[in-house]
Amino acid sequence: IKEGFYMNIITLHGAFMGLGLVCMVVAIIIAHYYRSKKWWLKLHRGLNIAAPVFAVIGIIVAIIMVTPGYGVQLPLVHHLLGLLTLVLLIIEPILGFSIFKSKDKQRIASLKKTHRIIGRITPIMYIVTMIAIELVVGG
Fold first, then answer.
1. Residue 108: CB partners within 8 Å, gap ≥ 6?
2. pLDDT-derived band of residue 1, with 50, 70 and 90 as boundaries?
3. Can you give the pLDDT at residue 6?
4. Average pLDDT value for residue range 13-32
5. Helix/strand/coil (H, E, C) string of the chain?
6. Which pTM does this prediction carry?
7. Residues 123 and 25: beta-carbon distance below 8 Å
8. Quick one: what percent of the chain has pLDDT higher than 70?
9. Tally of CB atoms within 10 A around 19
C-alpha cells in the first residue's frame, strides 16, 4: 500500500507541475503568435495566473510527499531549482500586470523587457529542474 501511495503522490506532483509548465508555454505561444487577435491578452493573462497556481499545488503535494514518515526524499538540487523556478513563475505575471499599472513609458518598456526575459527563462528552468531529477533518480 505504501509503495502505491508514493507512486500516486509523485505522479500527482508531476501532473500539477506539468500543468503549470503547459499553461506557461501556451501563454508564451499565444503572446508570440496571436497578438493580433482580440482575445489574446485575456487568455495570456489567465494562463499566466493558472501556471503558478498549478505549481503551488504541485509544491504542496511535494511537501506532503517529503514529510518525514512518508519516506520520499528527492535530491536537494531538485528542491533548489524548483524553488528558483517557482519564484520566477510568480514574479513573471506580477511584472506582466505591472505593465498595465504603470504610466511612465520608460518603466513600461523596462517591465515589458523584463517580463519577456523572465518569461523565456522560466520554462527553461522548469525543464532543467525536471532533467535534474531525472538524471539523479531516473538514472
1. 99, 102
2. very low
3. 58
4. 94
5. CHHHHHHHHHHHHHHHHHHHHHHHHHHHHHHHHCCCCCCHHHHHHHHHHHHHHHHHHHHHHHHHHHCCCCCCCCCHHHHHHHHHHHHHHHHHHHHHHHHHHCCCHHHHHHHHHHHHHHHHHHHHHHHHHHHHHHHHHHC
6. 0.83
7. yes
8. 85
9. 17
